[in-house]
Every structure is written in structure tokens, then in C-alpha cells.
Write a structure and sequence with these properties.
Four copies of one chain form a homotetramer.
Chain A lengths: L1 E4 L5 H13 L3 E6 L4 E6 L2 H4 L10 E5 L19 E3 L2 E3 L5 E5 L6 H14 L3 E3 L17 H14 L3 E4 L6 H7 L2 E4 L7 H9 L4 E4 L6 H13 L5 E5 L17 H8 L4 E3 L1 H5 L2 H14 L3 E5 L17 H17 L17
Parallel strand pairs in A: 7-8, 7-14, 8-9, 9-10, 10-11, 11-12, 12-13, 13-14
Antiparallel strand pairs in A: 1-3, 1-4, 2-3, 5-6
Chain lengths: ~350, ~350, ~350, ~350
């Protein structure tokens, strides 16, 4: 930590702060300059919080040298973490696609969508049973019945399933049915939920909050690693900016930034990032080109009649075309995409 | 709702949509123009969500006419709501100040701080027992022991108490000790928590999320009113922008905007808005001048040794001076501040 | 400057950088830590730019200690600068209000508006002759004819005049007619214009750009001080954020931040900050409460028929009421407002 | 235009507005609803500005139906515009790369960089002679001498040249030397400059401002088309958001949004978007995958000694590798990249 003192700070103040640093077993540094005295404290910066130097009246600013997260940092763990997802995995050299509708609606909707997604080459199935909605008047999800239907559909088509958990009390029941639990953007700093999911032992997809810096996202993941859960997949889904042409601004650069700072895998959710169906394919292609480990994409067998987020769900034919494009782009940056469709079954039925 | 069709939409498409609008018992409107066909649907716009027109391939855009919130709207309820807070109240012509430390730390810290705040004219006491922290390594609060200490201190000094609740499972215990429950900025869209707090029957302080539009804040409040709890105080505490000179950008204009749109009272939290002690007084003065119903302010008997947020906590003397300034500004805009200090007791004990 | 090296940087690299720092006559510092080597360079940080350390492959990050601006900094110039504006002045303990229509339209519009503004206690007159407009199809201003009309109106009513200059070629002609030149938000980083205005010798009102940090605003002012013009008034007028309820987010905290960092006066333009007439008075009151040195306010004798920005122009009666409120708030924070209306003449003529 | 009246608006007010709409030869519409009266005005919405309905006391909001730009809209001009750039062109099915240093520094720097860029397959050369710098103490460019050196280097290597123009007075001289004039992000709403460049007849690269919505960018381009210059290339280079891990947030979704709304070509500048060399390649790959028509990339023969923006300039070997990746990705989305290097000459000279 670098501690910049105010211009008017006396030498005695500097000595007192240096002494407090030393008492904490950190290495103190004294750097008197022409315009300012600068101090340093080398060692674990978390200990420094106890000194509350940020509220010292003669301290102008604190400049941390080390990142505030530890376990998620690539420095402590140089190799990529690979997170299992049922029989597949996210991270490493593979590129994976998790597809499905916004919400679990009906058995036929789930089966038709899963059949198509599987045929097009998807590796996992997503759908919400508990839905966070900005308005209390919007469809809130089918709850446990939805979880059962999602699980049954995943099993029928051999697809691992990912679904959102919205509160601590639901962690156990969601963990019982899902291969990975998703924490939504609005709950990224619901620290009670982060701890509970951290303790549940299941893989997690952690979505970036709309106002979260990459550093905040990594700190939120640190909450789960600190509870013993290293199976965390990060997810970029757009941040809130002044631009209104898209619902959110998909922060494509977060992907290489996360890759550099952390060993955790990162996937992209272009459906929520854009909020418009016609923007999903370009954003998805951009995400793989930028180095993402996978995608979470909303597809629906019949988007025009979806109960939620229909406007951003891809039509089956759009998804098929996207998968074909991804099969070319992924290898261009050294990604083994393995998206060979198992069978090209018909649509509907 | 105004429905703008794409240029290429046929007359048949327009007729079909008009028919679907009519089937929902809404009044359909047909406005053929030179460049576009525009349709209208007059009536309860919430019903329109079922038509999923936003995902219709021939619909270019939807323009709502009515606000998506109902019960929080001033249209439905023209008079100001007054929310009780122990023996005082927030809203109407009064101006109230709730002060206290960021976190409950010790008995002497709580008593010293409350004594001073009361003497300076504060109407309520705030302090956190459950603390949401960006880093898992930061102090997380004293939990139920903290609640008890807060309640005891409030009772001793005759100050109603406000404290944060972070998860559904804690709603009952927090409601047992507090006069009002606070929902923090990071939980503003934790919809499970909103519903639980909406059902608990206690007054609520709902803080605006860092990425929340005023409309999102009002919709979050709507969740609680829809559960039957009308005792909701809104709180502006800063939004996230590109500016780095302050921790957040305190959105002063949200105060008159909320006043215009809603009957709910709104207070300001300049401590979190600024994140720097020396910015708290100017922001607090600005908030009352802009029409806020009150303030939530961090004060600490000894900010240099606070366990959290010391840098933004006011010193006792700063708070005293601020209260004196507020006593002049509030009446300038017709506010009865009633901040006559009960007694001018000494500091410390 | 603090220079944090990458983990993998060798001791030789550190020595080489220290040697380069020393060659520039700066004081080098070596701070080897357990996880990182940190270097320091004390002295004029502008010289360091020549070393291009930010592109050094073994440098992880640079942390400046000193502000990048010099002449605008309060450190170099602790006392408030007072900028003359005709026979009045901005800065110091006074509080001044510059009012007028968005654009110069007609002689009767200018005279009616000036008469009213003067009667209500305004100290200066503003109106645009050259108008920056987002759309090429919007009214672009009356040019030199507008300047003449503004000057004549100011002279008639004894009000100094402020008007915008949009390009280098117009600086001389605008300086001929105006008491102060305004640089608009969209031109805040039009560096050619900043230099030309810096050389013209006239007082300047520099508006903050919509994406400008306070530091950027101060650096833009530094351009003019570096050209020899110290007569610069800064102006907060709102920044662009995700909030759509107001046209811009009026950054009230910029006022105390600027006051702390710089000796230059700062005024607020709540009309552009809000973009809505009904928000102007609360924002104006908030600005004075937060410590601004003055206001620039759009008033119009007949806003409903204004050629531009009518929606944000105050009606005469609204302006009158606002001035009355300011006369109470300003003294609460030690401001001598001197807003005694010279005469309470009737409206119209 | 849809005109939503306030709840309290009387039927007479509605009739008066309808009459004013009709007087402008627009088609008026009356839509009385249960909660509001809604009016419509069909026809050229630019005419409506004259009615100043946004400042009408009984108008709650205006909702435009048509885009405010006309000539840049794809509706008026469905086919892609192709902009010539010396002997090459931007737009259509090709994908083009313009590379070069941030600033013209020396003859050997320019020749070494151009030789390498050409060998790697670049189609154009960029470098600044007039440099906009946030700080007045930073290198400001070599001016006309820089222009001459850029032109000579372009001619020697057969590369068309692009360079920035910062003020109206320089348009002629820059147009004399450059194949295309660049308008920088900070000047995107310097309307005087837009008009001057619009009249100069040369192709233009218009960079998106840091606070500009896509709509603002298109309106800025409209200024030039309105002056008769249709040879406009738009350029996404990042917007300002709360994220600090990158200098700007590269808005990748702006590319498909612009493609949908306008016929003008759009290129991406990932160097300024990211501000960090190691982020340039992922952003560049993402841009082509998202559908950009080309790239503007900073490369330097010796970035460690660049006079400006060295930290974001690619090393020659990085650029070479990027070009190889682009040759695979571009065809995946139907782009003919034609990046076959003419010769694989050695580096240096």
C-alpha cells in the first residue's frame, strides 16, 4: 500500500503512521519528496484495513499495490480452472454453449427447445424456474415444478442443466435438481446468497452485476472460493451505461481482462447483454473471438409466445446458423469447439 | 401503449395485432402514416405483456404511455405518504435526520455516538448489525448481538432505530429489534427480500441501487406495496458513473423527480453518496435544498478508529455545524425542521 | 510517481528503470516487497512522461502522486480567484446569478427577458448567438446579429453579457461583444478553441463536458491558464449517465470537489443539467447549498414560444420565486448574495 | 410523433394542439384513453420542432416515431455505402485494416512502421500530425511537417493515409495531404468542424464521442451528409463508463446497431477502446466477428519509445499474428478480407 500524505502533514505524523505499520508486522517505507511525503507498507494489504488509514485526517490518498482478491487471482493459481458441468466442463481449451429458454414454461416447450438445441450442438441446457423480474406484475416462474421439468428434460436429452437461485432458502432445493446454480446479475452482491452457494458444493455461474466493475465481480467470486467452492464460472452479460440503443452495453473487453487477472473461466450471455434477438449472433461471435470459454444463449422453440424475454430469444434457425459460424471462429483462436452435432433431428415433433 | 410497426409490415399484420389487442379488452387504435403504421392500445398496459408484442417480428418498438408502477405512483395517491418511525415520522412538511455509525461496534461507541447525535438534534439512530461488504475479508458485523445493542441504545436515548436486513431468513429477527428495516443498495433488486420485507409490516428504508434508474427504484418499492406494506421510505445514495473523484455520483435530481412521480417520502444518504467526510455536509445541505424529506448520515464518536467506513463518518463537531446550517436552509423551502436540540449535553461520558 | 513492477520483473530491470529516473534529475526510490517490487520517482511527474514507462513490458501500473494540472491547482494558489464580469465579479464570498434565454431571438424577447431578470436581481445576462445543436435541422442561432443585440440589451439594462463561442475563427468577434466567452460542454476538449480563448484575454465560462471527469475539466482549464488567461469560471451542467428521468445527471458533488482542488470559481447550470423546467429550482437551490459561486439559468419571457430549449427555460414568476429562496439559503453558508432587486418593475413593457 | 398529455389536460387543450398540428400540414390523431389523452402527429417530425410542444405546460411527454437523422438512415438508402480511400475502399463485403503509429514522429519511425504494416497486409496508414491531448503539457504533434512526412511515407509504400484534423482553419491543409480526414472523439460534436469537413469533399473517418449515443453519432454524420459529403466512415472507439480496468468500454454492440440503422460503413479502433496493448488483439477479433467493415489499429516499430500512446501500440509481431487470425475469422461471416501480404519483407531497414 502506498500512503500519500497531505502537504501539511508534519514529520511527526509520518513517523507515527510508520510505527503503526511496523506494529502490524508490515514493512514500512519512508519516501520524503519535494511536494509530498509518501509512505509505503509492504505485505498483506488486508491487514492494513485495521489501521483505518483512509480516515486519517493527514492522509490524502491510499494506493493499493496488490489486488483485493486473492484466491481468484491468477497470481496464486496460474493455470486455468476447469469447472465440471455434468459430463462436460467449462474452461481450458474447449468452447461450450449452454442454450435454452428464459423460463421453464411447459413440457412441450422444454422438450422442443432442448431437442433443437442438442441437435444444433449445444452442451448444456438453461431455463429459469425462479425468475427475478423488475416489475412485481411480470411472470415470476414456476418454482420447484419448473426445476423438476428442467431436470427431466436435461436427462432425456443428455444435457447438464443450469438454473438460477434467488435466495438462500432455495439453495438446497436448486442444488438438488441442477448441475450448476446461477447467481443473477441483480444478486451479484447479495453476500448472504454468495456464502450459501459457496457452501453448497455445486458449480456456480456468477453473472456480473449491471454496476459491477470487473474487480467487484472477482471479489464476489472470492466470497465463494473463501467458502471452499472453487467451481465458479464468471459470466459477462452487459453493464449499464448511457447508451439506449441496446438494453445493456455488452462489455466485451471484460473477457480478456478477466482472463488476465483470474484463473476462473468466463462465459458470455449475449442475450441479456443486447436484449434484442438480432444483436445476439454478432455479440456471440464477438465473445468467442475475444476469448470467452463459452456462451449462455436464450433460444426458444417459439419466441413469439414466450412468457418472458421473448424479444431476445433466438429462433431455432438463427441458433443453427450461429453454431455453424462459431465452428469456424473458435479454431481461429486455438479453441477446440467440439460442436459436432450428435444428430440432425427434425424440429418440433 | 403505442406500437410502431416496421416499414415493411403489411396491413394484414396490423389488423391481426389490433384484433389481439381487442381480445384483451383494451381499446385498439389504428394510425396509418406516410412512413410507418402506428397502433395504440389504451387501458391497463400490464395486460399487454401477455401479447409479447416486443418479440413480434413486425413490431419495431413499443412506447409505453403509463408508468409500469401503480401503487407507488402519485397519480393513484396524490397526497404525500407519511411513514411512522417510532414516535416520529418521515414525510409531509417535517425534515428529519437519522444519524449513527456505519456499524454497531461496542456499547461505549454506540452510547457516545447516540448521546451526541441526540444532543445535536437527530431524530433517529442508525447502525448496521449485518454488514454487506464488497470484500469477504472486511468486517461483516456483529449480527443479533449488534441488534440488541442498537435497540438498547435507541431506547436509552429515546431515538427510533433503523438497521439493515440482508436476507429473507433474518427479516423476523431484525423486525423484532428495529423500528424500520433498511434494504441496502446491493439488495434493491433482491426480489425475494423485497417480498419478505413487504410482508413483515414494519416501515422500510429502501436504498437506490448503484445501477438503478428512478423507475427501477419505484418498481422495487412497488414490490413491497403490492405485498401490503405502504410504509416505504426511498433513499438516494448515489449511482455509479465514470467520475472517480467521489465514490458514487450523488444524483440530487432524483429527489425532485421522485417527489413528482410518487407519494412516498425520500431521504438522502450523502455519506455513501460521497464516500468522503469532507463532502458530506455540502451534499446534505444540497439534499434539503432540493426537497428531501430527511437525511441518513454517518457520524461516529471516533471516526479514526471506526471498524468500517470511517473515512465517510462525520466528526461530532462537523455534524453539529451541519445541523445548524440545516436549521436555516429547511425553512427557506417551507420545511418545519424541529431540530431544536433537547439538551446540549457534553461529549463523551 | 509510484511504479509497480510485474511479479516476474528481474532486479536488473528495476535497476535500469531507477537509472533512467535518475538521469531525468528525479529522485529514485527502491521498495522491494514480498510479492512485488515497487519503485518511486519523486519530482515533477510531467518529466516522467518522456520515459514512457506506461508502455514498459515489465511495468504493471503507474500511480501518480501529484495532480496532472498545476496552475489551476489550489496547492499552487491557495486563495480563491475572483473573475471579473463587467462591473461585477464571480468568486469569493459573493453569489451571482446570470440569467437569460437559451438563444437570442428578437429585440423584444431580449429586452423583455432582460428587464425581468434585472428586476428579479440577476447580475448578468446570457443568450446564445452561435448555437451548438445535436441535429443539423435545429435552429443554429443568429450569429453576429445576435451578438449585437445581446450587447445592446446588456448595455441598456446594465448587465454584463456572456455568450458561447463555437470556433477559433469566431473568438475575436465574440470577444468584441461579450464580457465573458462561454465554451460549451461539447467543446470542452476542443483544444484548439481552448488555446485561442486562452490567448484572447477575456474572462471565460468553461462548461464541463458530458463525459468529463472533474480532472478533465481542470486540465481543460489548465490549457487556458497555460496561455496566460487566469480569468476562468468553471461550470457544472450535468454528466451523462444511465438515468433517463433527467436529460443529464447534475453532479452536485463536483462543486465541493472543485472547490477543494482548485482556486477557480465554479458556477452551476441547472437548466441544462436537468433539461426540465420543473427541476431547475430544486437544482439551483441545491447548487448554492453545496457551495457554488453562482448560477447560470435559462429564463425566457415566453418559454412556450422559445426557438430552442423552451422546455427547460423558467417562466418569469418561477425565476422570481427562486431568487427569493436563494436570498435565504446563500447566507446560511456564509454567502453574501446581494440580490436586492434594484427596482420591482412590472413585467412586459 | 406521439404526444402524451397530462392527466389534468382539458379537452380544449387537446383540440388546440390538434389544430396547431394540422396547420403545419401534418396529420393529427386523437386518442382519448381512460387515464390519459394521447395525440399523434404523422409526417415529417422535424416540422414539429417549430411547435415547441416539449415546453407546453399540458404535455407530459413526446415520443418520436421516426429517427431524427434522415440522410444517414438505411431506410432512405438501403444499400451499403462504400467510401473510397485512395486506391482502396471501406464498406461492402471487404474488410480493411488501417494501421500506423499514434503520432508522426520521425522519418525512420514512419518508414519502419509503414514497411512492416504493409508487409503484414494493412490497407492504409494512419498517424497524427495534430494531436488532441488531455494535458497541455503532453506532446502536441508536428503539424504540417508531420502531414508531409505522412504523405511521403504513404506514397512510398502505396498506402492511402488517414490523419486527424482538429480545427476548421486546418481543414484545407489536411485535405491537401490526406486521403481521408479523421474527426476525433473529442470533436464529434464540434459542429463548426463537422460542417467544414462536410464541405471539403474528402472522405472522413468520424469517431464516436465518449459520451455519444449511437444516435448522436449518426446525427453528427448527418451534419456532413447535409453539407453534401456522403463519404463518411463511422468509427467505434469506446465510451466512458464506470469500469476502470480499461480506459474506455469498447461498445461492440454499436457495430451491429449502426449496420442496422445506417448505410454508412463502420470501423473499430480497438487501440483507443482498450488503451492497453494486450487488449487490442481480442478487441480487434471481436470487432470483425461482430460485423465491422475494418479496423484502425495503432502499431509502432518501437512502442517503448513512442512519443504518445505507446502503451496501446502493438509490437510488429503482435500485429502480424493478429492479421493471421483476422484472415480466418473474416470469411466465417462472409467477409472477403484480401489481406494477402504483398511481400514478406524484413523488419527494420
Amino acid at each position: 500500500m502506498i500512503i500519500v500524505l497531505k502537504r501539511e502533514a508534519s514529520p511527526e505524523i509520518a513517523q507515527e503512521i510508520l510505527r503503526r505499520i511496523e506494529e502490524k508486522d508490515l514493512k514500512p517505507l519512508h519516501m520524503p519528496g519535494t511536494e509530498r511525503v509518501v509512505l509505503g507498507a509492504l505485505g498483506d494489504e488486508r491487514i492494513l484495513a485495521e489501521l483505518a488509514l483512509d480516515s486519517h485526517p493527514m492522509v490524502e490518498s491510499l494506493k493499493p499495490i496488490l489486488a483485493p482478491y486473492k484466491m481468484v487471482s491468477r497470481e496464486m493459481h496460474p493455470h486455468d480452472t476447469i469447472v465440471r458441468l455434468g459430463k462436460t466442463a467449462i474452461g481450458g481449451r474447449g468452447f461450450k454453449v449452454i442454450a435454452g429458454p428464459c423460463a421453464v414454461e411447459t413440457e412441450s416447450q422444454m422438450r422442443n427447445t432442448a431437442r433443437f438445441a442438442k441437435a444444433a450442438g449445444a452442451h448444456g441446457l438453461r431455463a429459469g424456474a425462479f425468475k427475478p423480474r423488475t416489475s412485481p406484475y411480470a411472470f415470476q416462474g414456476h418454482g420447484v415444478e419448473g426445476l423438476k421439468l428442467l431436470r427431466a428434460t436435461g436427462d432425456e436429452f443428455g444435457l447438464p442443466v443450469v438454473t438460477e437461485v434467488m435466495e438462500t432458502a432455495d439453495v438446497d432445493i436448486v442444488a438438488e435438481y441442477a448441475d450448476a446454480l446461477q447467481i443473477g446479475a441483480r444478486n451479484m452482491q447479495n453476500f448472504s446468497l454468495l456464502k450459501a452457494v459457496g457452501r453448497c458444493g455445486k458449480p456456480v455461474v456468477l453473472k456480473r452485476g449491471m454496476a459491477a466493475k470487473v474487480e467487484d465481480l472477482l471479489l464476489a467470486a472470492e466470497y465463494m472460493l473463501a467458502e471452499g467452492n472453487e467451481q465458479v464460472i464468471l459470466c459477462e452479460r452487459g453493464i449499464r451505461t448511457f447508451e439506449t440503443a441496446t438494453r445493456n452495453t455488452f462489455d466485451i473487453s471484460a473477457i480478456p481482462v478477466v482472463k488476465k487477472l483470474s484463473h476462473l473461466p468466463i462465459v458470455a450471455d449475449p442475450s441479456h447483454g443486447a436484449g434484442r434477438r438480432d444483436m445476439v449472433a454478432p455479440m456471440a461471435r464477438a465473445a468467442v473471438a475475444a476469448g470467452a470459454d463459452g456462451l449462455i444463449i436464450e433460444v426458444h422453440c417459439d419466441p413469439d409466445h414466450a412468457l418472458s424475454d421473448g424479444a431476445q430469444s433466438m429462433f431455432p434457425a438463427q441458433f443453427d446458423r450461429l453454431m455453424a459460424e462459431l465452428r469456424i471462429i473458435a479454431p481461429a483462436i486455438g479453441r477446440s469447439i467440439c460442436l459436432e452435432p450428435v444428430r440432425r433431428g427434425g424440429w418440433g415433433s
